[in-house]
Amino acid sequence: MAKQKAIQDFNLIYWIFRPLVCWGAICHYNSFTVRGKENLPKEGGYMLAPCHQQALMEPLAVLSVVRKNPVFLARADIFAQPTIRKILTFLKIMPVYRIRDGKESLSKNAEIFEKSRSVVLGGYPFCMMAEGRHNDKHQLLPLVKGMFRIAGETQRSLGSTPLYILPTGIDFDEYEEPYANLCINIGEPIPVQQFMETFETNEPVALNQMRDVISAGMSRQMHDIKSKAHYEEHLTLSNILNKEERKKEHLRNSAFNRFLTRQKIARKLDEMESNEDANYPVLMEKTAQYRSLCKKSKVSEKTESAQWNKFHMALSLLVVCLFAYAFITCAPVRRATLFILACFPMMVLPTHLLVPKFIKDTQFRSSINYGIRFFVSIIYTLIFSAVMGITQGGAWHDIFPNLHGFWWWLAAFDIPLVMAYFNGPLNTWLKNFWRNLRFFYRRPFIHKSAREMKELRKEIYAIYNK
User: Fold this and answer.
1) Dihedral-angle region of residue 276 (phi above 0 means left; psi in -120 to 50 means alpha; beta otherwise)
2) Angle of helix 362-390 relative to helix 405-442, nearest 10 degrees?
3) Would you place residue 40 in the very low, low, confident or very high pLDDT band (cuts 50, 70, 90)?
4) Residues 369-395: what's their mean pLDDT?
5) What value, to the nearest 5°, has the Cα angle with vertex 186 and ends 197 and 198?
6) What does the alpha-carbon distance between residue 105 and residue 309 come to, in Å, rounded to a whole number?
7) What residues contact residue 153 under an 8 Å CB cut-off, 6+ apart?
8) Are 109 and 147 spatial neighbours (Cβ–Cβ below 8 Å)?
9) What is the band of 2 on the pLDDT scale with cuts at 50, 70, 90?
């Protein structure tokens, strides 16, 4: 009888598709930033413990960072349908059972944990969302012990060879909006060997020790808002104070610097709350007023607090007008633009607006949107590039009538790969331009509210810095 193939073993189809999947994940965001990659151990085994705020996007983020094919654990209920189970197994994702899946299901974890150990012993990265479920807040949930039990038993099998757990922060500045910014922050590896003496004599105590150390490590790598009573106010302050705090630290306006600044603001607010700072209640009250005023005026907090200046608005408006003029009056510009859109229509298709109608779980929406755009893009590109090659350019044949069909196929095949990369920044720029243009247009009509919002922000910043 042939030996059953292990989940981490080489798979040709997986090997072919992995670069495309990773490229699609990177292009799904406006910016995709990784820090701490040097912390990935070069010797011994390691397990990644990322925070979990999206359904499948964290695994895709990890897949895009590590070199060897990682294996993941995911909650068992999503494996219920046979087709989905086959797809997830192909993606090197195994089920882990929880008490809510039924007590009789928990016995299946013994086999899963054994397979997990074989992954690490085979030299492959292992990734488990230690929180056990995804969370729709920038807030670390209590960690489950399954990962630490696997770590202890694997370290026992490894003997003197070290095993490490890497606390990893994965930050999305927007959960549902398309082309968000993704920041991956990999912490320093934590050796499991330091817990083994206790693990051998008192396993529950060792698991608690691992949980506490890894939890603290994960919190340091992510935007972790600890407040339960004032979560929304802390999140608002992390955004509206960001610009001034970056200026104070002389940090340029990048996605990772905004993430670091949100971390810093959140930690200071947590300290103010836990130390019962006298200014904290006033700060929360002013922030609640600011949020209410923004909502009443139908103004985004981010737009109001980090609006472009008039020079940027004028320059952006000039660029848009020049392009519109060139598109209307210049045939080559018009035809080139239409060819690019024909090659990659996903640039202008708002698939994210359709997803909420069918997916109720908000944390799955970005993953479903990614899946739709990824598979539709591949199928469309294969068909359209073939048509361009066979017809030697189709409607664009007269531009280069002597051009061989192969070059038309190559152009139609490669343009989507290139445009997918620029799609995020371009759409983000247009979205910000439209929001700020709308804000400047509406400002005279909400003059009193706009002035109140600006004054409130000044008061909030003064209180925060006392």
Assistant:
1) left
2) 140
3) very high
4) 93
5) 10
6) 58
7) 113, 117
8) no
9) very low
